[in-house]
């Protein structure tokens, strides 16, 4: 099986209602960073069944890791444990999943962070 892209799916739930503004501020900054990051093919977000999901597609895992370890995304990761809970999954695939598949993939394969 050929693996052409690296897919990253996150799903987060805010711990308390008063964390929502901080969550969205960091989410918007992180999304802007992802969309402009070297190696990013696409990045989008949706709320499904009360879970705030991101779906990003990368040329390779190294490009995704470079994004994770710098700028607003790194800042958000440091803050995350105090304001949200969630799971992540990353994998090689021939193409990105459809949004209709994202929540099920996350439930089945996600790793708690």
From TrEMBL:
It comes from Marivita lacus. InterPro entries: Dimeric_a/b-barrel. It comes from the Bacteria. This is DUF3291 domain-containing protein.
């Amino acid at each position: 099986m050929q693996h052409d892209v690296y897919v990253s799916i996150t799903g987060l739930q805010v711990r308390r209602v008063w964390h929502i503004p901080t969550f969205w501020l960091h989410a918007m900054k992180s999304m802007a960073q992802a969309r402009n990051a070297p190696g990013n093919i696409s990045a989008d977000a949706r709320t499904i069944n009360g879970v705030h999901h991101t779906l990003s597609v990368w040329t390779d895992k190294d490009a995704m890791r470079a994004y994770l370890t710098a700028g607003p995304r790194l800042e958000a990761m440091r803050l995350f444990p105090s304001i949200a809970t969630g799971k992540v999954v990353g994998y090689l695939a021939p193409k990105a999943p459809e949004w209709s598949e994202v929540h099920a993939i996350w439930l089945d394969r996600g790793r708690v962070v």
